[in-house]
Every structure is written in C-alpha cells, then in structure tokens.
Amino acid sequence: MIIDCHGHYTTAPAPHQAYREAQLAAHTAGQPLPAPKTISDEEIRESIEQNQLRLLRERGADMTIFSPRASAMAHHAGDEAVSGQWTAACNNLIKRVVDLYPETFIGVCQLPQSPGVSIANSVAELERCVNQLGFVGCNLNPDPSGGHWTSAPLTDRNWYPLFEKMVELDVPAMVHVSGSCNANFHATGAHYINADTTAFMQFIEGDLFRDFPALRFIIPHGGGAVPYHWGRYRGLADMLKRPPLAEHVMKNVFFDTCVYHQPGIDLLFRVIDINNILFGSEMVGAVRGIDPETGQYFDDTKRYIDALRLSDDDRYKVYEGNARRVYPRLDALLKERGQ
Questions:
Q1: Do the strands 63-68 and 105-107 form a parallel or antiparallel pair, or are they unpaired?
Q2: Which whole number is the average pLDDT over 93-104?
C-alpha cells in the first residue's frame, strides 16, 4: 500500500469558499455570522474525482491523509468565533469526503486557532474530530498571526494543553502554517519553508520531548531547509549543549517527501534516516505545473522516490510502514479492514 501523508482539499466546491467570504464580510460589518452553504454529494464527488482521486490512481498511490486547505485556514482572519465556525465547516467537509471514499481518504483536522487565544481552546475540536469524526491527526499552525510570529515557540508551556491531549489521543500533528498576511513572506515560497525550518530549530533549543516522549510531529515540505543544512543544525545542537539530534529530536520528528525535484529527494534520503521519512506529495497544492526540464508534474513525488531504487524494506517504510507507525489510529483502521 502507498499512503500519501500530505493531502489538502484544495479543490473544495465553490460554495465552500463563498461561505468563507460571506462569513468574513459579516464579521467586518458586525453582523451575525452566516451558516455554511449547502454542498451536495455530487459537488464533492466532482471536485474529488476529477482531481485528487484521478491523480492518485494515475500516479499509483492508494490512500491520502487528507486535511482542509492549509492556506485557507487563515487563523489571522476574523476572531476566535470566526475561526471556530470556519474550522468546524472545513473539518466537516473533510469528513464527508472520507465518508464518500473511505478506502482512499482518511481525515486530519485543522484547529480553530486564533492569535492571542490559548491553544487550550482548540482541544475540544481535536477531540471532536478524533473521537466523533474518526480523524487520525491534526495540522498545527505555529504562527496563527499569518507571518508576524506573535506566538511563543512550540516548546513553550503555552502549547502544552494541546500536546497533552495529542498524547492522550495518540495522534500526531503536522506543523503547517497558513497564508501569509506579511508582504515580506510569500506564503508557499517563503512562509511555509520558513515555518518548517523554524519549528525544527525550536525543537533543538527546547526540551519538549523530554516532557512528552510520545509526542510526534511531521514537518512537511521535506523539512524545509533542515536536510540541506543538516551540518548547521548538528553543529548548533552541539554549541547549545543539546544532545545529538538523533536522540534529542529525531525520535519524535518526521519529514515528508514534498520536494519537487530529483536532487532534492536524493539529498533528503542521503541525510535523513529512512525511518523518519514519510511519502507525501501535496498534489494539487503549492506547485501544480509541469517541470519543463522533465516533462513531468513537479508534485509527482513518487517518481523521484521510485528512481532511488530503494530496497523492499526501505520502500515499505517510506510508502506505508512509517505512516502507520506515526499515525497509529490509521494503522488500527487498516488492520480492522484486514490491510
């Protein structure tokens, strides 16, 4: 089985975005927030079958760990009430996709974060999504301010209420920022990669995994700049009197393969232990076009991994085994199905 750990509903039906625009307009005007717009099963099927489902089949994957569109989380927009309502609507829509295609999609939720609001207020939505909707993880935004970084580092105790619940529920989080409202940082070209790298450095500086040895994070987009500058981070850990990265961070942190050229994938696999790499593509995401140098889609990351000619054991780890280990609720579901 080939499990793509990084998928977003970037093709959600138009009424979903229309609802968001109406919601933000009502908030700005000081009016009551509207209810979500009605979306039919047919609209969902059309949006999925012509996009993610078609590409999964064409590219040879079997399942996607699926979450709301990351750039649309926009925790900086509106206030806590706006974020809470929008988050619930997004997560409910993911649940409908999963119910329509249970063999292909498994849900991961966004959280109703809001700048200056305690992360403890997001715990109830995580519980709802895991216990009631059957989701297997969450996306955690380390910068709800949208590019201004007003939150404490992920190692700060302000985040602990969520981490405690994640450990209790045995679910991981993908560290994933949303859109940028800071003109200095292009959302997918700078803000995403900055956040991936920043989160990793925060983990080096702190002692989060001493307090939560079972906590698990996926840092997407190939780990940002980390694999490319692995010597820098090993050296910084040494200078800061931190333990070696293998024991201080890498028992709890994993990278995906959303790296859109062969040399980048080659480097990722040379530098990072195979047990810390999960297949991911983020297809129909940030980079959707065809690479003029290869004639293939940039985000067809399976091609790059297949070109590595991994052993059968390593191939299993990257395509399936590591995902099942990092997402134990997914593993339990698949075992129930006899997979």
A1: parallel
A2: 98
Query: Which residue is listed with tokens 């997004």?
Result: 90
Sign of CA dihedral 210, 322, 196, 146: negative
| Model confidence at 297: pLDDT above 90 | no
Among 224, 282, 217, 227, which residue's Cα sits nearest to residue 254?
217
Domain ranges of the chain: 3-336
Sequence-separated (6 or more) residues with CB below 8 Å from residue 130: 109, 136, 169, 171, 329
Tokens representing 123?
């715990």
Cβ–Cβ < 8 Å for 239, 232: no
pLDDT tens column, 249-274: 999 999 999 999 999 999 999 999 99
pLDDT of residue 286: 82
The better pLDDT of the pair 288, 60 is held by: 60
Residues classed as catalytic = 282
Burial of 120 (0-12, 13-18, 19+ CB in 10 A): middle
Q: What CATH homologous superfamily does 3-336 map to?
A: Metal-dependent hydrolases (3.20.20.140)
